[in-house]
Amino acid sequence: MKYIEVHLQTNKVHRVEDVLPSNSAEAAKFIECSNDAVEMNWWVDPADGSLHTQRRWPREEAREERDKMLKATDWMMASDFAIHKPEHAAALADLKTYRQALRDMMSNDPILQEHFPLWPSSLKQGNF
User: Which of 2, 41, 48, 65 is most exposed by smallest CB count within 10 Å?
Assistant: First the structure.
């Protein structure tokens, strides 16, 4: 038996404990979990309380999130942005790969896993 605390806004498991905290205010934040394999960042489906290792995205919700992520990088694709200089060719290639991965993810199953493409490390803030 495990005890989990679930973050209310993200529905992710925030804390996992083997023993219920002795402080009653802390203990009230936890729920019992019969799945001993549960770990932090598992997702709790708000519809039925079931646990998943990753969030499941309905197709339209995933498309909306994906579109936001693409829109957030549109400005970087402008030809006058510094990433288009020859010395940043590798970062530009990473950005293009990231954006293509976002586009490609919609060709998968109708229920998508949480694994949106990760932001490339070569594009850390302040590089351009």
Answer: 48
Query: How many separate helices (H) and strands (E) can be counted in the chain?
Result: 3, 7
Both tokens of 102, joined, read 């976002």
Q: Is the pLDDT of residue 121 over 90?
A: no
- The tokens of 59 are what? 């197709």
Rounded CA-CA distance 92/82 in Å is: 10
Residue 126 CA to residue 90 CA, distance in Å, equals 16
pLDDT of 45: 79
CA-based torsion, 32, 36, 41, 43: positive or negative: negative
Which residues lie closer than 8 Å to 124 by C-beta, 6 or more apart? none
